[in-house]
From TrEMBL:
Gene3D superfamilies assigned: Fumarylacetoacetase-like, C-terminal domain (3.90.850.10)
UniProt similarity note: Belongs to the FAH family.
Keywords: Hydrolase, Metal-binding
Entry keyword Metal-binding: yes
Residues of the Fumarylacetoacetase-like C-terminal domain: 75-281
UniProt cross-references to InterPro entries, sorted A to Z: FAH, Fumarylacetoacetase-like_C, Fumarylacetoacetase_C_sf
Descriptive protein name: Fumarylacetoacetate hydrolase family protein
UniProt GO molecular function: hydrolase activity
Organism: Roseibium sediminicola
One Pfam family named in its UniProt record: FAA_hydrolase
Length: 293
């Protein structure tokens, strides 16, 4: 199944997506609510919802404005080094344990929303990533059982302000600027993709310029292994986000560095899932617009 949280003629809600059309599951059953939370939590049966889609009219997918799949996830946990060639281009040793960090909710934006280059630095970088949405929580999850805990897969651009990422041994500042982490728009359930979303082409680009191109089979820590590893130290909960790291080709490793510039539109694409596209804007322009309103 392909699902999208968005705002259309039927208002904000969860939409079932098929081809170029979408049906509001929220309109079909008010218990669904404005995002995937009720479905992920198991309060509403997804298969039963899909069977009720004929209660509402189809809307053109292009008419929807995307929203975050889960507006306020409990945790957003990211892998920093999960592709060997990306590890090497950053000058790191290949780790024996994943480099993990967390992102804040205020850093996350939906597909289509402006990706903000902060006024304090021009070093806004892109990172194409597979994003996992947890469906069933747990602690000490066995790797063999881990994929049963996945609700779906989506796209993520782990926008990173490199100058601030390197101010400290902890990456938190550079990974948490407001409006730098696009997610979505479509969430694909596991039955529509290869096991663990392996073997999918992953790419980032600006226009015809291909910035990154690899496959999810290159990940050091698979989805299952990541879930098992993370659940050793924290209880995973329905709706948590897990970002699976980025392949080589990031801007800071290019010579000269290739930073995202206001006026560009950056796209992340993963085979079988879709495209997450966001315009890049300068923070000072956002402030000027807000002040004029």
């Amino acid at each position: 199944m392909r699902l999208m949280v968005g705002t259309g003629v039927s208002g904000q809600g969860v939409y079932l997506v098929e081809g170029d059309w979408a049906w509001s599951l929220t309109m079909a059953d008010g218990r669904v609510g404005p995002d995937l939370r009720a479905i992920v939590d198991g309060h509403v049966d997804l298969n039963a919802l899909v069977a009720e889609r004929d209660k509402v009219d189809a809307e053109p997918l292009s008419s929807l404005t995307p929203g975050l799949p889960i507006a306020r996830p409990g945790k957003i946990i990211c892998l920093g080094l999960n592709y060997v060639d990306h590890i090497k281009e950053g000058g790191y040793d290949v780790p024996t344990y994943p480099a993990l960090f967390m992102r804040s909710v205020t850093s996350m934006i939906p597909a289509g929303a402006p990706m903000v280059r902060p006024s304090c630095s021009e070093q806004l970088d892109y990172e194409a990533e597979l994003m996992v949405i947890i469906g069933k929580g747990g602690k000490h999850i066995a790797e063999d059982d881990a994929l049963d805990h996945v609700f779906g897969y989506t796209l993520f651009n782990d926008g990173s302000v490199r100058e601030y990422q390197r101010k400290t041994h902890q990456w938190t500042p550079g990974k948490n600027f407001d409006g730098t982490g696009p997610v979505g728009p479509v969430v694909v359930t596991p039955d529509e993709l290869p096991k663990g979303a392996e073997g999918l082409k992953i790419e980032s680009r600006v226009g015809s310029e291909i910035l990154q191109s690899a496959t999810t089979s290159d990940m050091l820590w698979s989805v299952a292994r990541t879930i098992a590893t993370v659940s050793e130290f924290t209880t995973l909960e329905p709706g948590d986000y897990l970002a699976m790291g980025t392949p080589p080709g990031v801007g800071h490793a290019k010579k000269p560095p290739r930073w995202l510039r206001p006026g560009e539109t950056v796209e992340v694409e993963i085979e079988g899932i879709g495209v997450c596209a966001n315009p890049v804007v300068a923070e000072e322009d956002v402030r000027a617009t807000e002040a004029a309103e």
